[in-house]
């Protein structure tokens, strides 16, 4: 059975990841409000999956609605997409999708031959296409990342990779970003073992990444977050590969809290540190990590576990993400277009974008 975080065939269902690994339950998403709430509550999480569920939740809501004019439809699409970006603002993929689709739909609306139905159909098709594109991009990332890691290792030996949080099928439409790199290494027969952190306080590593490794029969070991430095010292790790919720122009990267300390420890131990991020997670509009808004979540995530109090009534600080400076990303940033050093990433991606634009004009 293939794992699926998102099911869509005109009807949208998400796997409630708060219940894993003990219970597998799909929930219907019937509206944008349902999508927003599922994202905010982390029933669905992972920057690519957040964007896909958000965009599809609007597709579901649009499908049966009647509109007096194409302007009414266009305005609704714009307002609903803008609202969806507020659920978890650090992850940039939802904002990227909202901006891209709002611009596209306004252009379509301005076409005098367009109708309510043609605009609706165009939005629906763009939303559905995100599923296949995400999987294709992830497989490309996996290939590029695996190739780069193997180039830096002894060809005769298998590799050991440490990862953080969950960046696999459960965080995407399929295959995964950082976990996609690990998956590609496994498919090549070059992975000796993956190590995953538990990833407090929501335990995405213990509940979700470990679940994916066991499900897909990938050799793996779970460690507590505070064991990463010891693992780097004792386990002969070949590389650290993590995902990203937002990579900015200079290469600074926002990712799940705890990533920054992994990067510091990896540099101390001389272990290459990679960030795997599709271009939809890269925000060239922000100059550096200091410009990233960091989401802070409820203190209950620290003081309770499934409703049971595990800490006294104390002041808590619970940032969901931290920012890893570009100079700690020593291996490179893995994208669907290749692996780039942080300092060259912006120029490389802008060059690719300009080439794509010229090709479409021709």
At a glance:
The chain is 44% helix and 16% strand. It has 362 residues and is α/β, with parallel strands linked by helices.
What's the story with the biggest beta sheet? Answer: 7 strands, mixed
Number of discrete helical segments: 11
Adjacency order of strands in the biggest sheet: 6-5-4-7-10-15-16
**β-sheet strand percentage:** 15-25%
**Overall geometry:** globular
The helix content, as a percent range, equals 40-55%
Helix/sheet category = alpha/beta
The rounded distance between the terminal residues' Cα atoms is 44 Å
Tell me the Rg in angstroms: 20 Å
Description:
The longest helix has 36 residues. The protein starts with 5 loop residues before the first strand and ends with a helix. The model has no long low-confidence stretch (mean pLDDT 95). The protein has 11 helices and 16 strands. It has 362 residues and is an alpha/beta fold. A 7-stranded mixed beta sheet has the order 6-5-4-7-10-15-16. The chain has a 4-stranded mixed beta sheet with strand order 11-8-9-14, covered by helices on one side.
């Amino acid at each position: 059975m293939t794992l699926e975080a998102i099911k869509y065939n005109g009807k949208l269902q998400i796997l409630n990841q708060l219940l894993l690994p003990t219970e597998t339950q799909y929930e219907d998403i019937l509206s944008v409000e349902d999508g927003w709430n599922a994202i905010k509550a982390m029933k669905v999480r992972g920057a690519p999956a957040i964007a896909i569920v958000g965009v599809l939740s609007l597709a579901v809501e649009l499908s049966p609605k009647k509109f007096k004019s194409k302007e009414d439809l266009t305005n609704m699409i714009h307002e609903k997409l803008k609202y969806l970006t507020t659920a978890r603002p650090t992850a940039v993929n939802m904002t990227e999708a909202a901006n891209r689709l709002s611009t596209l739909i306004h252009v379509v609306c301005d076409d005098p031959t367009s109708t309510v139905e043609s605009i609706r159909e165009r939005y629906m098709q763009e939303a559905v296409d995100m599923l296949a594109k995400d999987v294709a991009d992830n497989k490309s990332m996996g290939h590029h990342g695996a190739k780069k890691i193997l180039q830096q290792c002894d060809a005769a030996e298998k590799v050991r990779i440490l990862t953080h949080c969950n960046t696999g099928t459960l965080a995407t439409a399929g295959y995964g970003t950082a976990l996609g790199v690990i998956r590609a290494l496994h498919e090549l027969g070059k992975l000796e073992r993956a190590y995953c952190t538990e990833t407090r306080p929501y335990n995405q590593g213990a509940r979700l990444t470990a679940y994916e490794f066991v499900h897909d029969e990938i050799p793996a070991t779970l460690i507590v977050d505070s064991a990463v430095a010891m693992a780097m010292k004792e386990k002969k790790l070949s590389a650290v590969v993590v995902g990203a919720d937002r990579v900015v122009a200079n290469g600074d990267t926002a990712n799940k809290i705890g990533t920054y300390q992994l990067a510091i420890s990896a540099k101390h131990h001389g272990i290459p540190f990679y960030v795997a991020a599709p271009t939809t997670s890269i925000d060239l509009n922000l100059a550096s990590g200091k410009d990233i808004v960091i989401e802070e979540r409820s203190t209950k995530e620290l003081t309770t576990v499934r409703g049971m109090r595990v800490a006294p009534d104390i002041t808590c600080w619970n940032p969901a993400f931290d920012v890893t400076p570009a100079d700690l990303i020593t291996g490179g940033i893995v994208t669907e277009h290749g692996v780039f050093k942080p300092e060259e990433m912006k120029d490389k991606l802008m060059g690719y974008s300009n080439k794509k634009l010229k090709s479409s004009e021709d």
